[in-house]
From TrEMBL:
Function recorded in the entry: Catalyzes the hydrolysis of dihydropyrimidines and of the structurally related DL-5-mono-substituted hydantoins, to produce N-carbamoyl-D-amino acids.
Organism this protein belongs to: Duganella fentianensis
Domain Amidohydrolase-related: 50-437
Official protein name in the record: D-hydantoinase/dihydropyrimidinase
Any one Gene Ontology molecular-function term assigned to this protein's record: metal ion binding
UniProt enzyme class: hydrolase
Amino acid sequence: MTILIRGGTVVNADRVFRADVLCDGDKIIAVAENLAAPAGATVIDAGGQYVMPGGIDTHTHMNLPFMGTVTQDDFYTGTAAGLAGGTTTIMDFVIPAPQQNLIEAYHQWRGWAQKAAADYTFHVAITWWDDSVHRDMGTLVREHGVNSFKHFMAYKNAIMADDETLVKSFRRSLELGAIPTVHAENGELVYQLQQDLLKQGLTGPSSHPLSRPPAVEAEAANRAIAIANVLNTPVYIVHVSCAESLEAITRARAHGQRVYGEALAGHLVIDDSVYQSPDLEFAAGHVMSPPFRSKQHQTALWQGLQGGNLHTTATDHCTFCAAQKAAGKDDFTKIPNGCGGVEDRMSVVWDAGVNAGLLTPSEFVKVTSTNAAQIFNMYPRKGVIAAGADADVVVWDPEGSRTISARTQHARGGFNVFEGRTVRGIPSATVAAGKVVFQNGTLMAVEGAGRHIDRPAFKAASAR
Ligand SMILES: NC(=O)NCCC(=O)O
Ligand SMILES: [Zn+2]
Ligand SMILES: [Zn+2]
């Protein structure tokens, strides 16, 4: 398929310029003014609109078995929803059960992802440690295109990585040229605070944020950063939600440490008042970890994105329906943690960031696509509008608007944390791997069209 996107303004992370964009097969082949349409080409008129690299959501959980249940969105429905919102690549997580062989888990997730409508790639979680994990990390990096490993510092008695695992895995990641990433919350503290709250009879969702205050997150962020500093590894902190974690990142970066931070669209615009709702289904629908915080923390996160101490935006898309959330109706610790957003991130960040004057269009591209591609070694295949890059392109209508609702979303779960929010700035067309997959409100996602994106190590793997 040949596609000419004509008359738009290309927005890359480094500059904004008038150009047409010609795609052939799954690649962009030319970016220049006044390109002629080849015979048979599909022409998209982008007059007055922006033409940007497809969004990369660095943090999703499709088809995730978690807390005794499985997320509502699988790799097809979740990636299709992303395409409707301008996200053309997701970075999902292989999360082996404790003692599960890493390679077996990797193939399990690859099997589930066969359905994906958009490109995908995997971080692999290190949830336990022995010699086979050390060995299999090498195999994943050398043979399976994995260059990032995830560590849950929370979820005690489940997938939590202790300090021994963190140290050994960070060291192994360095050896392999992979980047360690962390969910930074002190799992022991969370567990003890949860038990205290339950003993006091505080069993509802309003206890969820009380069991995970900012200091719990900051302790883990500081610990991960300290371990990375001693071992001389980079580290990427997922879903940074509070000022204290951001301060830890900022301080480390000021001392020359290579620390990266991710902000979630939800944490940027939703505050913790949601947990006080008398509608317990609504409050439980917002239970995710780390929890939504006060407005002061939202302001700090925006400053982090503006100042370059936070680098990516993601969603942690992890959808559970009301019936699943009801597993915790008598005990908030049993509410499956997770919220959606893959369909909404680009518009939410544009509306609350660019329209509010907090981000320029180029900064928007940086934090929704380019930085992710660079940090996780997919650049310049992804993250830029340039000849040779993948034909993942969003035609962005800065004046188009929509009101977000679970009633009209493509994602499953029947709930949306952005419910009722009207956003200005929406995709008028999404091109993924050289195919028009969304145009003027119509989704044309194809099950199975997504591809696994191999991400090479950051330096040649040793012969070990
Ligand atoms: N974030 C969340 O609450 N659920 C998904 C798993 C995780 O990322 O911690
Ligand atoms: Zn997490
Ligand atoms: Zn997550």
